[in-house]
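It is worth pausing here to work through a concrete case rather than discussing structure prediction in the abstract. The textbook approach is simple: state the sequence, then state the predicted structure, then interpret. We follow exactly that order.
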Amino acid sequence: MTYTQTLKAWDAINGAMGCVYAKVDGSVEEMFYVKDIKATMTKSKSEIRVLGYTGAKTKSTGWKGTGSMKMYYCTTYFRRMMVKYANTGVDTYFDLYIENEDPSSEIGIQRIWLKRVNIDSLDIAKLNTEQTELSEDVKFTFDGVEILEGFDKVVGE
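Step two, the predicted structure:
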């Protein structure tokens, strides 16, 4: 019988253990009101047809960064950016730092830096008599990324 290692349960990252910071024009905002954040990189590909092969091969030709945040509706920080653009035509680009740090895990910290983040959409105003706490979804794009620190190697048990 072959012994297979398994993930240590305590190394599964607790999604609530981390933080997000926005850096706009040198000013840093700790975004403790974020409930959920996700950034996705998607490759662009071209289809390549070649002689002697009936299938289609692909070649990567670029990438696109998109993301979303679900936040408690308690800050005007991003609404000011949208209104500034609407009223002046001056858009705001900023950086996001996203950190996973679960102290009960043995795999350490991961820090990701999203560069030149730009908001696509957000709720400019809202009320809802059915909710005891308001939240909002913010969609964004980014065009640069760096891994500042990665998780340590996962060691099974």
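Step three, interpretation. The chain has one helix and eight strands. The beta strands are 18-24, 27-30, 34-48, 57-72, 94-101, 109-121, 135-142, 144-149.
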